[in-house]
Every structure is written in structure tokens, then in C-alpha cells.
Write a sequence for this structure.
């Protein structure tokens, strides 16, 4: 931060009279620094969010692949076993297992889908920083306006 913004944060007393160009330069410099800091914050938020999404997507992919690979022999064995129990009605055992696996798969995939949807994409840190920084700029512009009004009053008083 620059000298002008540090002074404006320390006290609410009127600032010493400065030239308009220096005050405007200080406000512009502060705004530039704040914008650059906001860009850094957004980059950090995006990195965090992409890391979370990658982790959850990777988990879904790995567990889905394991499920598919391991389920094929188990399904075949279960159909044969249930078909033997149901007096050689393999079509019925296939239907029962198909419905059961469909329910289990849809519940699991729905769970992970909702988990992905609940990831934080709201940029709360960035929003808080933007609010704080906009308040700082607003206070600096108010100081600038106050100095301008005092200068005008002094100029009118000297002209009388």
C-alpha cells in the first residue's frame, strides 16, 4: 500500500492539503494494487476448486472402474446360483439381480453427483476481499472530495 492509503486508514482526520494530481495518483495506484491482489485471489480460488473437482472426479472414475471389473464375474455367478435356487429359472434370477444392481448403482452415483454439486464455487474469500478493498477506495475518494471542497471554500474565502 502507498503512503496516502496508510494515512487514510490510520485516522479520520482531514489529510494535509496535497495537489489533486498526487491524490488522484495515490488513489489510482491503490486501485491498481487492489485489482492485482483480487486477480491473485481469484487464481487461488480457481486452483482450490479445480483440485477439489479433480479429486472427486478421480474417485468416481477409480471406484466405478473397480465396480465394473469386479462385478461381471460376481453377477454371472449370482445369476447361476439364484437360477438354481429358483428351479432353473435363470431369466428370473437375471431380472432380480439386474434390478438390485441398478438400484445400488443409481444410489451410489447420485451420492457422488450431489457431492460434486456441493463443492464451493462461490469465491467467498474473493468476495470479502473485494468488499473490503472497495470500501478503502470509497474512503479515499471521499477524502479526495473533502479536500477538493475545502480547497474551493478556501479559494472563495480568499477571493472575498
Amino acid at each position: 500500500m502507498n503512503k496516502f492509503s496508510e494515512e487514510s486508514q490510520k485516522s479520520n482526520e482531514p489529510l494535509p492539503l496535497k495537489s489533486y494530481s498526487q491524490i488522484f495518483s495515490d488513489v489510482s495506484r491503490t486501485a491498481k494494487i487492489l485489482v492485482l491482489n483480487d486477480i491473485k485471489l481469484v487464481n487461488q480460488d480457481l486452483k482450490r476448486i479445480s483440485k477439489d473437482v479433480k479429486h472427486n472426479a478421480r474417485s468416481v472414475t477409480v471406484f466405478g472402474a473397480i465396480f465394473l471389473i469386479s462385478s461381471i464375474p460376481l453377477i454371472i455367478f449370482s445369476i447361476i446360483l439364484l437360477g438354481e435356487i429358483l428351479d432353473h429359472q435363470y431369466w428370473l434370477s437375471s431380472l432380480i439381480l439386474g434390478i438390485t444392481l441398478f438400484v445400488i448403482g443409481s444410489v451410489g452415483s447420485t451420492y457422488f453427483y450431489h457431492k460434486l454439486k456441493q463443492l464451493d464455487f462461490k469465491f467467498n474469500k474473493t468476495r470479502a476481499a473485494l468488499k473490503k478493498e472497495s470500501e478503502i477506495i470509497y474512503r479515499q475518494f471521499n477524502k479526495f472530495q473533502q479536500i477538493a471542497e475545502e480547497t474551493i471554500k478556501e479559494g472563495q474565502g480568499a477571493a472575498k
